[in-house]
Specification:
Layout lengths: L1 H29 L15 E9 L13 E10 L5 E4 L11 E4 L4 H37 L1
Antiparallel strand pairs: 1-2, 3-4
Helix pairs in contact: 1-2
């Protein structure tokens, strides 16, 4: 049964990573018009950086079993510049009258959300398949 539990662990790690990805996308969309942050300046979009970790939790990307989990290594800021919009009456306008808006592109974020959602659905499907296979093996053992 170790194989079934390992497969479940791998699938669950993918679900967790995609959940973090969806949360960062939601934060990006929620702050798409935020021109002032606590750090100063416009909001900068964020992305999770994933890494493979061996199933035995070792640092190498592939463990002894040749199977890897996915984990979020860190959340990184996108360094692309924000969009400069001429709005001289805005409280965050610079001397020339331009306001820097976040470097968040709603279309790009929605594509990322669809991709993350589909990856999450695939993970759920794989867990369902693993459970079905385990039930079938148990039924074979009974019969």
């Amino acid at each position: 049964m170790l194989g079934v539990f390992s497969a479940m662990e791998v699938a669950a790690s993918g679900l967790g990573a995609e959940r973090v990805r969806m949360n960062t996308i939601a934060a990006n969309l929620a702050n798409a018009r935020t021109t002032r942050t606590e750090q100063g300046g416009a909001y900068r979009r964020i992305d999770p950086l994933f890494e493979a970790v061996g199933l035995d939790r070792s640092r190498p990307s592939v463990g002894r079993t040749g199977v890897s989990l996915v984990q979020v290594a860190r959340i990184v800021q996108d360094e692309r510049p924000g969009q400069m919009v001429y709005e001289p009456g805005h409280p965050d306008a610079n001397r020339e009258g331009y306001v820097e808006y976040p470097n968040v592109n709603a279309v790009e974020e929605m594509v990322n959300m669809i991709t993350a959602s589909r990856a999450y659905e695939a993970g759920v499907t794989s867990i369902d398949t693993i459970k079905h296979m385990a039930r079938s093996a148990i039924d074979l053992g009974r019969g």
